[in-house]
Specification:
Helices cover 51% and strands 12% of the residues. The chain has 319 residues and is an alpha+beta fold. It has two domains: 2-160, Cytidine Deaminase, domain 2; 167-311, Serine Threonine Protein Phosphatase 5, Tetratricopeptide repeat (Alpha Horseshoe). A seven-stranded mixed β-sheet has the order 1-3-2-4-5-6-7, with helices on both faces. InterPro entries: DUF4192.
Length: 319
């Protein structure tokens, strides 16, 4: 599941096209074979994406899908939802919507509307929208005002989740330059945290020797903990840019640690989609990476980034 809690931005949706544009903005990519849940009425903005089950899936797969969306909705005290299904299989979309709607409404959470979208057409799934017809309604949100505004504010929107994940692929030339500069010994936690913070807030990327030293340092858990533990939520987006650049530069044996730090700062910034990409990148290199597991747990439990403020204040975020 991808959970997102982006910086407050008021988007007033009045049409199916508006809702589809909201999904594109909050996810940061064009979803496919997905169920997206937009929520309303809770104490803070929260939206989620899960994979759409395959055609002719078993009932227990649909039950798992429904439970996966219900748990975070309850945690965030959601009052109402809209379900958007992206995929070409109308029957599977309807089965998924029925399962999720029953689960939500059984817990007192309204499902205001449900729409399936595919190949530039949307189709109503609840029957509340009129005039769609069997062929659906053509739509295009690439130049929608919500999308344009998000891009102008610096939000990068990718063509797919795979395209987003590819932004973390290794750059062979940059990685080779870092490899040539690897130090003999790791740096101190204090140096690593201060260096990461300096470059993040300055919007700069360390030169190869400094990048090599920083990447080598965060391979040590005590150093890594000092680095991610030093990040403040209001500055997390700056750290995302830094660690995305470092992941692309990391030698193969160091990439898991950099990707795990990226996953954490992406979660802290409210970008659940990128956080999952960081988790996946870390686990591909080190399946049992502890920080990646911690971030994955937060994402699966839809733990809001605001809980990090509670941790800093000595409050249990689960309370």
């Amino acid at each position: 599941m991808t959970s997102l809690s982006l910086p407050p931005t008021t988007l007033t949706a009045r049409s199916p096209e508006d809702l589809l544009a909201v999904a594109r903005v909050v996810l940061g990519f064009d979803p496919d074979d997905s169920v997206v849940m937009l929520t309303f009425g809770g104490p803070g903005p929260f939206h989620a994406r899960v994979d759409l089950p395959p055609p002719r899936c078993a009932a227990d797969e649909l039950a798992l899908l429904a439970d996966t969306l219900l748990r975070p909705a309850l945690r965030h005290r959601v009052e109402a939802t809209v379900l958007l299904v992206f995929g070409d299989d109308d029957r599977t979309a309807r089965r998924a919507v029925r399962a999720v709607t029953r689960s939500l409404e059984g817990a007192g959470i309204a499902c205001l509307e449900a729409i399936r979208a595919h190949a530039g057409r949307w189709h109503p799934l609840h029957g509340r929208l009129r005039g769609a017809g069997s062929a659906g309604v053509t739509y295009d949100v690439t130049a929608h005002p919500f999308v344009v505004d998000a891009v102008l504010r610096g939000r990068v929107i990718h063509g797919s989740r795979a395209e987003l994940a590819a932004t973390l692929d290794a750059d062979p030339e940059l990685s080779a330059a870092v490899t040539r500069c690897r130090p003999a010994a790791a740096a101190s936690p204090e140096w690593a945290a201060a260096t990461a913070r300096h470059h993040a807030l300055a919007g700069t990327v360390p030169p190869a020797p400094e990048a090599a030293r920083l990447l080598e340092a965060v391979a040590e858990q005590s150093v890594r903990d000092a680095v991610w533990g030093d990040v403040e939520r209001g500055e997390a987006r700056h750290h995302v840019e830094l660690w995305s650049a470092l992941v692309r530069r990391a030698p193969d044996d160091l990439v898991a640690h950099a990707a795990a730090v990226l996953a954490f700062v992406a979660w802290l910034s409210g970008d659940g989609a990128l956080a999952w990409c960081g988790v996946d990148r870390a686990r591909a290199a080190c399946p049992d990476h502890s920080l990646a597991a911690l971030v994955a747990s937060a994402l699966e439990g839809a733990v809001p980034p605001s809980s990090w403020d509670d941790v800093g204040a000595g409050v249990d975020p689960a309370s």
